[in-house]
C-alpha cells in the first residue's frame, strides 16, 4: 500500500535567490511564507521575488517503494523543483496541488531544491487584486511512495478517483471512476462503499476502472441540517495483497438554482446566505495550520451561514473537507481576477482543470467560479472568448455542477459577459463605494426584471470597520456603528428577496491587502465581520447571527463605545429571541419586540451607566459614560497619511478635499476641476505602467478616470471624498504628496457649494 511521508520539517530557506547552490539561510518548518510580517503592514512594499527552499532526503529512511512522488500542496505562485541539481518540473499557479516523479533521481543522499517565485508577470493569475499574494511553500509538502501499479498521481494533482452520485427518488446511483497506471493481468480493483461510521455497505471486485453502485433509501447530504457523508475506498489487489489504495468521502444530494425561488437542495428551498473567506490571518499570512481552518469554520457556523464563497482561489483541501462535514454550500473559483491578461489564457485553463479535478468529490461545492470583477476595464472579445472556453471546459469536466461569475458593479446589465455562465452574481457596494444602502435591493429587482431567466445573487457586499465609534455614523467613516447600520439595511433588503440564489458578505474576516492605505490601519481590508486575528467579533457579526442562527443569544452593540456626549443615546441590541428588555443601572427602561431582530432603545446618558440587555434567561452587558467633549480616541486618524480630514482648510460654503466627488461634480466648475484631476491621474497611471528603464510593467488598471459622471466607475466612486479617493489610489500605486493635496484643496476652496 502507498505511504504518505510528510516532509514539512527542517528546510533551509534563502530569501531573494534562484541559486540552488546557495546554503546561506535559515531553517524553517512548513507551512511557510516569507510575507508573514510584511504582507499586511501597508505600503504595498511586501517582498515579491524568488526564494529557495532546500531539504535533504536520506534513502535509508524512506519506505520501500517502486516510485516516489514529491507532492506540493501550495507553492505561490510559480515554482521549480530541482532534484540532485537537475530541474525536473515547474508549475504556475499558487493555490493547487501538484506532484513530481523524483524516483530516478533518488540517491543515498538526495537534495531537493524548490525555487518559489511570487514576483509580477503577465502569464500567471492573479497579478492585480485587492489582497496580498503571499509567497512561499505555505501548505504541506509530502512524499508519496507507491507501487509501480498505482492510482494516477500525474492527473492534475487529483486524488485518483472520481465519484458521481445521482439521486433518483429515494435511491442513488453512485458511479466511481478510477485513474490507474500500469494495471497488469491478474490485478483487480476492489471498490467498497462505507457508511458514515465506516461500516462496509457494498463491495465490487473487477478489472474495470469504473464501478456503479445503487444505494437504496439513500441518506442525503442536506447542508447544515444533515451533512451526511459516505466513503468510497478502492484497492488495487494482486494475489490477496493490496498494492495501492485511495479513498474519498462523498455526499448524495441533488440541487438546482431557480431564477425565482433561489437555491433548491434535495427538492427543498434552501436559502444560501453566507460569507466569503480569504485564507490568511494575522501573524502567519497564508501559512495556516489545521487549527486555524477549524477556528474559521467554527466562527462561520456560529454566525449561522449556510454558504461560503471561497475567494479568490483554490483553498486548502482540509478546509473543503470541513465544509463537507459541516454542511456549508460552497462556491469555488480560480484567481482569474480584476485584470484580463491576453497572455494568461493558458493559466486560467490549467488552474481550472486543477480546481475541478482535485475537488470533484466534495459534495459541498455546487458552483465553479469563472472569474471575479474581470470586466472592470470592459469586456473585450478576447476576454469573452476566454470565458467561453472556461465555461465549456467546466461543463466537459463536470456535468453535475453549474458555472458562475462575480461581476463588478459597473458591468452593465446588457454586457454579453453575463450570458456565458449558468448563474450570475454581482459585487455591489452601494452605501460604501458610492450610492447609498437603499439602492441595493432595487438594483437586483431591476436585474431580475431585465433577465427573468438568469438566477442572480450578490457575491460581495460590505463596508469597513475598525475600532472607531460615533453616535452619528456616516458612509466612509470606518466606524463599527456605520458597519452595523449598513449590514442591518443590507440584510433586510437581500434576505427578503427569495429569488436571489445566494448572498455572500465581503468578508467574514479582515484580510491582508498590503496596498491599502485607509481606515487608520494600513495593509488590510477591514470589511470583515471578525478581525484578522480572529479575536474580536464586530457588532455586524451578531446582526447576521440574529437572522441566520438557531442558537439563542442576545448581543448588546457598542460595547467598545463608552464615552458619549449626547444626553440621550441610541443603544442597539441584536437577538434571535422575540423580546428584549433593557436595564440601565438595574432599572428597566422597557421591553421591545422586533420582527427584523434589531432592537433600538433611547437611553438617558447621565454619569456612568451599566447597560444590560435581557432576553429570557439570556443577557449581555456594557457601559456608557457621559462626557463633555468627544473622545478623540474614537476618531479616525489615518496611519502614515499625508493629510487627515481635520488638517484640511474647509471654508464655509466652499468645497474641500473632505467633500464627496458626486457633490463636487454636481456643479459646473466642480465638473471641470474633476476632469482636470482625472487627466492628472491618468498621467500618473501611465507613468506607473513603466519601470525605471521605461519598459511596460505588468498589473495596473486600464481605467479612464477622466470620464464623465455618467460612467459606471464614476457613479461608484461618487460616494468618496476626494481625500479618501486619493488615499485609496495607493492600491493602484498612485500617491500624492502633501503639497499636491494642499494645492488641490486650494483649487476646491475657490468653488462655491450650491445654496441649499
Notes on the structure:
The protein has 756 residues and is of the alpha+beta class. The protein folds into 5 domains: 3-146, Galactose-binding domain-like (Jelly Rolls), CATH 2.60.120; 161-250, Sandwich (Immunoglobulin-like); 272-551, TIM Barrel, CATH 3.20.20.80; 564-633, Immunoglobulins (Immunoglobulin-like, Sandwich); 641-749, no CATH class. Helices cover 19% and strands 31% of the residues. It contains 12 helices and 44 strands. The strands form 12 sheets. An 8-stranded parallel beta sheet has the order 33-32-31-30-29-28-27-34. The longest helix has 21 residues, at 668-688. The radius of gyration is 28 Å and the shape is globular. It starts with a strand and ends in a 7-residue tail after the last helix. Residues 691-711 have low confidence and may be disordered.
List its salient traits.
756 residues; TIM Barrel; alpha+beta; 6-stranded antiparallel β-sheet; single chain; Jelly Rolls; Immunoglobulin-like; 44 strands; 8-stranded parallel β-sheet
Helix content: 10-25%
**Taking all residues together, what is the mean pLDDT?**
93
Gross morphology is: globular
- Tell me the radius of gyration: 28 Å
| Major sheet | 8 strands, parallel
Estimate nothing, just give the exact number of structural domains: 5
Q: How many separate helices?
A: 12
Counting helices, strands and paired strands, the structural category is alpha+beta
Unreliable parts: 691-711
Termini separation comes to 80 Å
